[in-house]
Amino acid sequence: MNFIESPNVDHVNVEERVARLCKRSIKKESKLEALKLALSMVDLTTLEARDTPGKVIQMCHKAMRPHDFEDIPRVAAVCVYPNLVRVAKKTLLNSGVKVASVATAFPSGMSSTKIKISETKWAVSEGADEIDMVISRGKFLSGDLQYVFDEIALVKEACGEAHLKVILETGELSTLDNVRKASDLAIMAGADFIKTSTGKLQPAATLPVTLVMFEAIRDHFQRTGKMVGMKPAGGISTSKIAIQYLVTLRETLGNAWMNSNYFRFGASTLANDLLMQIVKLKTGVYQSEDYFSKD
Question: Omega into 7 within 30° of 0, i.e. cis?
Fold first, then answer.
């Protein structure tokens, strides 16, 4: 495989652009719409060893109806381990909320390609609409790009009709140049989305990293006409930060990406803050955190 040569990242320019975009202010009506849009892009997630069917069912009900107000949108998806996909699928029925499942030895990725493919096929057979895979960071950092490319392509094939989100675990890639190279590689291998992080390591998502990934998506679209989605995950916990991501998304990729088909937040704790801010703008009063489940 002849890989494209990824451009070097101008770190100073990235930091300056992010700083400028973060200063943008959004007024009341536009802010309310931005908060609703952000909520519709959330992947509610539970990825703990103590997850149970009951916890997943509760999360699914919250995903379908986050609040009693009729005009508050459902979230985009719920994300669970493969063994709980069937529970989520049954609970969500035809609600429009997608079922995503992590696979490929999440979060470490330290397993054989054969096992990763098998786990992917299992999750899809249980009903997963989307697969979130992790790349082999050790192989990437040691320079074995062909291995990483082939593994992504094989997992993509195993997904069948399910969409593939490729997690770069950017906190382990060390440099923005590596982030750009890994983004280009994942896109070329067939990723439907590229994703910053598992949420299990720090640093997770940051705006500079996300901007670099947006630029990889933009350049690929300009070369090929193919739109690829983006999912920052981990560390996005407030509405203010979420809106900064949306501003950066719109200014870099444009309105076509401003929907859950092409952008997601991997941040379950963000949902409650979005709901609190929406209710505040609609009623003038903050509801207590006790009014919202902790999913």
Answer: no
